[in-house]
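Honest question from a wet-lab person: if I give you the sequences of every part of a complex, can you actually get the arrangement of the whole thing, not just the pieces? Trying it with mine:
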Amino acid sequence: MNDSHRPNDRHRRPRASYNPGAEGFSDGRLVEVHNQLANDKEEPSEGFSLLPVFVVFLFCGFGFWAGLYLTRNSGDFNPGSFDLDAPRAVADNGPKEFEPDPVKGEKLFVANCASCHQATGLGVAGAFPPLADSPWVAGNEERLVKIIIAGLAGELDYKGTKYNGAMPNIGAGLKDAQVAHIATYVRQAWGNQAGPVTDAKVAEVRKAVGSRGAYSPAEILQAHPLETK
Amino acid sequence: MSQENPNSRPQGQGRPQGRPAETGAPRISRVDASVASPVKFFFASALLWLLVSSVLAVITAVKLHLPGFLNGCEFVTFGRLDAIQRNVFFYGWASNALIGLNLWLLASLGRFEFRNAWIATLGGLIWNLALTIGVAFVLLDSQNAFELLELPRGVAPAFFVAFLLAALWPAVAFARRPTSHVFVSQWYILGASFVLPVVYLLAQLMVLWCPTNGVLQALVHSWFLQNFLFLWLGASALAAVYYFLPKELGTTLTGYYLSTVGFWTLFLFAGWTGPATLLGSPLPLWIQSTGVVAAVMLLIPLTITSINFFGTLSRDSGWSRAWNNTTLRFVAFGLVAYTLATVLQIVFSARSLNAIVRFTAFTAGQQQLLTYAFVSMVIFGAAYFILPRLTGAFWPSAKLVHLHFWSCAVAVVGSVAGSLVFGWSQGAALAAAKPFADTAHPQAALLSSACAVLFLIGHVAFAVNAFGMLTSCSSSTDEGRQA
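Yes, you can. This is the full assembly:
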């Protein structure tokens, strides 16, 4: 390429096999010869070559690694999994901690309680006692949870109105967390201001209640007297 | 074409005058003559855009360390010029040249005379007109915020139609070739010609015309970019390497029967590597991991191209013969760059390494290694081979060829090495939670300015040589005037 005006023209030498002539390959010969090579697989003069076997094993190895890598790093193909460390972090912390959820609580209340106590929590005078602004609800949390789990039957006097109903054991058919959501919602809605109830507390109370029937008002007030404001 | 090989003629500088065989100048084969007009048009347009891109690259590089340079005029702000430079380089230079190169290779390898070459030329006209209009709009401050999709979206239909005319139509002509054998270069060209319109169309639709929601947009864009870089630019340049290496060395390719596997695995995996450029983003984990796996699986095509190319070059003192052959010197340079670029793509898909270089100049260096040190150098080498055969003239100056090679080679080595080293060191400093201002390297901007000037020198040398040849032979063929 030095001072030649024809930079491509140097060092074009023929080869012994598949001699393309002094000018390098013509296009036709180039295609033809390589077509033969593709069919022959190997140049006959070279004898048996380990290359193809090696290449096949190498590529199988890549494929094996790819499978392993995808299995370990795919986040279980969960579209919500973004971070490589996230799944492990969840596993390390064990079961998720209970967090009271007012939205869930309201839904559960409407489904299970509002037919009697009303969605407003005001109840029906003479039939179903109100929950709004009630010391029965906002005071001792065990009292509330016991009533939800076991029910309450018998005569009861509240704010000058007499009630004589029988509340069924609604909570017996619900999970601890669901009872906790309902209790927390009731204790914080309609002007009630009391702390949340955890699912662990519900489980503890459920154990204490056992399989007994409904409480009577006198019985429950003896165990947990109403708090005075 | 062998008996009409221009370089096999006795040396002479005479202009071809109707019957070139008697004057000693190279003769133009009938196959070459049939595609001469579009191919010359594409190469000439590519050259002009390359000069524009080089000048813009100098301006943007200088602006990085002299912020006051060309201050006060909104048309030459960094944001606009940088986007224009990128688009001019990829759509103006690389794509134009590769369309022309692919066209020539398809005709030469299929050994058919191209009919209706004006269709390809028409495609070229539309392509370059659309690019000019798009650049003007970006200059007037109307650009999209997606790399290589910055041009206003109205340009896209014109690009699409132009590409169908200029690249897919030749592929259809390929189906009617007289020969039955298909050489590996032809696979790569056809693959590349079908990949680009599909990914461009889908990227335009899903990113700009009817934008998808959230991270899907970024995912589609990364998919488009990787396809554009590896399967349009990369595969087209590989086609040229597969052709010129055996052609100029006069030897067969080592392990040629493996090249089918290399072709299919490249096209299977390269398009999936997009998510590997988005590691750590809010993409679902399995998509990121799929990208990493696809990037690592590029080892398969890389192994095969290495066996094919380096095996061929290591036989019969192939390296020294390649060094002494203008075309092969560029091609071999590009080949080493391709191997390095793919290795970097694979290695830096590893999550821990990727986290360090993710937001630094390192990725720019990787891209330049692939698109300049590989693709552009191969195009240069191909131009040194093709243009004399189309014009029937010799390269006017061997000194300019030397100047071109050395300035571009030094510039790209300096520029890529600078990006990689400074990018890595900045990434490491950022990972150590150092303040950003302390991690920036002022030397990096100086180095890139020096390299940009060197690039410009090399490109001007190439352009002077090429336009000297293109204009010196105006009488050789009727179509010769196009460029």
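Two things worth pointing out. Residues 182-315 of chain B form one domain. Chain B touches chain A through 63 residues (CB under 8 Å).
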